[in-house]
Amino acid sequence: MTLAKDERIFLLILIVNLIISLIYLLAGILFVVPARFAMEDKEGEERLSDNRRTYLLRFIVMILCPVIGPLFFFVGHLFYIVVFWKKVDLADVIFSKERIRVRMRADEERERDIIPLEEAVLVNEKKNLRLVMMNVLREDIQNSLTAITLALDSEDSEASHYAAAVLSDELNKFRICVQKLWKQIQEEPDRTEYAEMLLDYVDNVLRQRIFSAYEQCRFVEILNSAAELLYEKDPARFTVGRYEEVCLRTLEIKDYDHSGKWCLRMAERFPEELSTYTCRLKLHFAMQDREAFFDALGALKRSNVVIDNETLELIRVFG
Q1: pTM of the predicted model, to two decimals?
Q2: Which terminus of the chain is more exposed, N or C, with fewer CB under 10 A?
Q3: Which residues, in sequence order, are CB contacts of 90 under 8 Å at separation 6+?
């Protein structure tokens, strides 16, 4: 029985397809996969490469889809060589977790029982105090140091132990960080970003007034020195908030000379800011300079500055 011409051609295509598929399978299993594994072991890094199972699955596809299967894999490999011929350099790619904002559901059971730490200390209930302490410790505690100090005098020894341990750890971290930043400022005075970092970092802790008088003065002196350097090197980077920080921190340690100097500088740089007037009012009130206080208060009332509730109450009392 002789086969028709079309049948012979079809049978020939199947045989050629089978031979090509077998060659592809054997070459991949016996040569390509071992060579890639050996390269990975030599270079010590793991790569995404085809394994023996992949070649077996492709072989099955080639057998079930004659001609189309081999052509599909051939064209795909050719496209990969043409388009992705150059190795991708990921050196400049930064995967930053800071850009990811994780939104979590509120813990209603936990938040329903939360009370301020100050109230827990006053009530002096051990259960409430310990619960609040644990909740505070789980979050950013640098802004809650003042509240944590209240728990030091608690009758609950466990709560006071938590507070003492946290305060000791945080204040030691603060001292070490300030020392490192101040050393970098002295070694590289032209790098004004160090002075900016120190101003913002130190003020966030000093405003909570948790240090002894001596240590508070020492850190305020460092703050003032860093502010002087930033003002000298790049006064344009000195925001109104930083002027206010230095004014108030120097005023708190009764360094009226430096506080007055920064008030004048702020008035020159930001004459129409509310902080410019409030800092002057606080300085004159602390120095008990009645005439200068009412002059500053009158200037504020005549200005176009938007006044907040606290300043408005001040005007009502003294104006």
Answers
A1: 0.54
A2: N
A3: none
